[in-house]
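Quick board copy: two proteins, each given as sequence then tokens.
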Amino acid sequence: TPGTIVATGTDVTVSDTITITSATTPAVTVTSGAVTNTFTSGVATLTKYVRNVTTPMVGTGAPYGYGGNNYYLGGITAKPGEVLEYALVATNTSSTGSVSAAVMTDALPTSYVTFRSGVYSGSTDVTYFVVGSPSASYLTAAADADAANYAAPTLTVNVGTGATNAAGGTIPASTSLLVLYQVTINP
């Protein structure tokens, strides 16, 4: 029955009875018993952390650690000219369902900050990492063949398995993804 799913992470169960009719002998049919399919959706959460690169400090909230650095939910301050690094963490909290068409976006307050380019490996602008995998991907913020694009004021990173420069991919169940980028505080 058609309807609307109103709660994320809800299982959708479809029950069908299938009838097959012979193309050559229309009077011959076979009807199945009930066929039940359950589709479980993933549940994505997005958490934004920050650290002051120029003047390291301890912020508030439980820290998120990556690459020997701690990122915080809040309590980080910065002066003009200092660099902040943001960590966007997307987690599929479902133990069975995937999240599809996954895209992480962040709107930068360009009156106060300037997006930094060329700060990561190979003079790239964004680091993308599947938590638990052995290596990171380094992306440019230009509208090109990789999965990141910065068109002020919005940074967009298509994430997940199968992500391209045009579409988000799939985040498997119980998987977290990390996107890092930096800004400089304007004078």
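And the next:
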Amino acid sequence: MNYTKIGTTDFFMGMKQNRESIIKNSKVIIFEGLKSVMKADDYGYDYCLAAETSCLNDEQIKILIQLGVKDVIIGFDSDVELSNISENKNIKKLKRFCNVYAIKDKHQLLGKKEDKMAPVDKGKEVFKTLLEQVVRL
């Protein structure tokens, strides 16, 4: 549990557990919360991290660049607009170093945007479907 507001963190939750797999796969899925990372791991996706926020900061971008991954997939909750992700200055910076994608719920598999569902919240099959429909930023 976070006792202080997160927003200027210089880490990702789950890095210790998933670093090797992220490097081996040369890809990472970034969620807002650690709960989503644990669910994805349970589904067999062990190359995930939690940003603890819906906006990546400068320090987190540096970490991703240093990892040397080829693909970064943003899997923020359904209430985060795709335009907010793609227009973020740090995402634009990251795109110079790797491919950046975002999970877009094209068919509202997660329900309404107000429900604030993470891409993993409706089960393994829905998550797998969402991963097949990522959009490049």
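Board note added afterward: The helical segments are 15-25, 34-42, 58-67, 82-86, 89-94, 124-132.
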